[in-house]
Structures are given as structure tokens and as C-alpha cells.
Amino acid sequence: MAAQGSGSARGSGAAAALALVLLCVLLHGELAESAVYTVGDRGGWSFNTANWPKGKRFRAGDVLAFRYNAKAHNVVPVSAAGYKSCSAPKGVRALTTGNDRVTLKRGANYFICSFPGHCQAGMKIAVTAA
């Protein structure tokens, strides 16, 4: 009888190990799906970054890392109209740490620097996430 009990325990241990392996695979698959992009690559978030997204494929859930001098710039999520006019609506919260991370939502995502003249000088990006 003792052999049956230990065989049963061995079977439940194997099932638990298999469940753990499957959980790890699923979690890894979720994490592997998102990518992190540094806006502006080595130059960071700065002037003339409007063309930086060209040629890149973004997906909802990907993360944009904005790295910049926090004393000289900021990051403001805006609408398409705000992107075109280089204006942020009143009350919108600017990101100001100099090392901000934004998770992309499906569709169009727009960002500008709201310091006077910076957006007009090309410190803005439009990213479309599939």
C-alpha cells in the first residue's frame, strides 16, 4: 500500500512541476511580446526626432523610453490636433523625469515637448501601434 501512496505523491509532484513549467512559458511569452524602444535611439528625446519612428513596427503594449535633460525638455501625450498644432490642452500632465516610460495603446499615439518652440523644431513623434 505504501507504494501506491508514494506513486500517487510522485504523480502529483510531476503535475505540479508541469504546471509550473507551463506558467513560466506563458509568462515569458507575454513578456517577450512587448518591446522597449528608446526614443531617438542614442541621441534620446531631442530636436528632429519626428522621423525616428519611420521603419519601426510598434505594437500595443510596447514601451517608449524617453530619455532627455529634464531641465530643458518634457514629454506630453497629445491628440492628433495637438500634434499638428504643437499645443497641449490645458490641464494635461507633462512627463518631466528625464527618463519616462510610456506604454503604447493600439492606434495612434502622439507626443510633443511643450517647451516653447521645441515641438516646432521637430521635438515630436507620432507612433502607430498595431
From TrEMBL:
The keyword Cell division belongs to this UniProt entry's keyword annotation: no
CDD domains, per the entry: Plantacyanin
A Pfam entry, by short name: Cu_bind_like
Protein name: Plantacyanin
Keyword line: Copper, Disulfide bond, Metal-binding, Signal
Residue ranges constituting the Phytocyanin domain according to the UniProt record: 35-130
Keyword Chloroplast applies: no
Natural source organism: Zea mays
InterPro entries for this protein: BlueCu_1_BS (IPR028871), Cupredoxin (IPR008972), Phytocyanin-like (IPR039391), Phytocyanin_dom (IPR003245), Plantacyanin (IPR041844)
Signal peptide span: 1-32
GO CC annotation terms, alphabetical: plasma membrane
Gene Ontology terms, MF aspect: electron transfer activity; metal ion binding
